[in-house]
């Protein structure tokens, strides 16, 4: 995969080459053995008071969970994401051990998914996180109940042929990756 | 550093060896050149609609910002964290471009700080994230205004001598790292 991040300071290749692709190999299948290292990485993420508020539901292409997730995807996501070997739902526990709102519930889930993505990238798998899905429908379909909350869906799979994507997606896929300048981010 | 994560599946060494230490070298100084790669890594984290809601304020030991952050730390944090060469405040923009609440503001800041931590670890720096600080006092002290929100403080520095920590901290530092079993995290 080209399109590596442009950096002023050198960063790990696994971070520089990580991106959120839309082209998946629709024939490649995955098992828990393929995803295990990435879930281990998520599991060992840090969290406030080590509460580890994250949990995950995995669907593999062809199974019921993958179909349920696919059905709730919005817009373009519904076109490209179902080709991924796995679709994963990221869930957070919104409460602390003493029953208060955990201000770091989403923050820590974000950290865990970031660790997942970095490890997946190292294992030759592409991750694309999505906020574009029907959160209420997915919550019901998967039977997620308070204080657990569905936050994110992400696709995981082997990279596919960008040229085979329909035009608006192909163009996005080939566009340079962009970020705000470092001087805007740090002071 | 020993005390590497116990994993059922192999993960990158930079993830397995990452931890949140409390023993810093109180003489080692840092500059932006030392933190640059970690901030680059944070900058290239993914975010919902590429909004990149994160920003950071850095204090270096001896400067005004480091002192302001140190003064707002709670409990044990006030004992060990000020020895770190840098204290960083993680801030998120709570609104989207169209002025709505960004449901992924904290989630994406978490991802950016996770990327920061991984890169820092690779560069021989230790990161310890904290929620234990006076958020209102720090918000005022640094002049952070809505829709920007202070979320987290983290220390960055060269590892120090664990044996020199006071007893309750020393014990925590040497305790094995623990996480929920993978079967509880993924289904």
TrEMBL record, chains A, B:
Stretch list, region Disordered: 167-187
Name the record gives this protein: Unannotated protein
UniProt cross-references to Pfam families, sorted A to Z: Nitroreductase
Residues in the signal sequence: none
Keyword Repeat: no
CDD domains to which the protein is assigned, alphabetical: TdsD-like (cd02138)
Family, as annotated: Belongs to the nitroreductase family.
Domain Nitroreductase positions: 16-74, 97-158
Extent of Basic and acidic residues compositional bias: 168-187
One Gene Ontology MF term: oxidoreductase activity
